[in-house]
Write a structure and sequence with these properties.
By secondary structure, the protein is of the alpha/beta class. The chain is built from 4 helices and 10 strands, in the order H-H-H-E-E-E-H-E-E-E-E-E-E-E.
Amino acid sequence: RSRKRSQAELLPLEASVASPEPVLAAVAAPKKLFRYDYATGFCRDRQGRRGFNPVSVDQLRLSRDGECADLRNARIIGPGTGRLKGWNLRGAEFNGSLLDSISLLDADLRGAVLRGLSRNNAQLTGRIDRYTRFPIPRFGRLICSAEKERLVCKN
């Protein structure tokens, strides 16, 4: 004799009664091993070693914190993402990444490596420093200009 079990009965007790907030918090707050060093323009851990933090696009969307994120070959696509404002992308590595149908506005791009970044219908603005490596005219139709400590890239 078998009886059908409800979905709640099939889940472990803690999964059936737990709210999703702790899971989202864990996804949204990746552990930062590396932090941007304003004096050198590199991302370093506590021992001074250079490196990047592994961060998924989902974590980035939830937390808006991509400091020293390894976003190489990432695909950041709208409209689910749409207009994004005020992201921390200090020291992030974007080589080989794609921005598609998205506006990243007023981001902190100090020390970010934006060369090799592809885009399709994208806009990018933010604060830069002398270590930011930004897209050059070969960035397609997107025209980028750096004025003082600000980068503006528009279609």
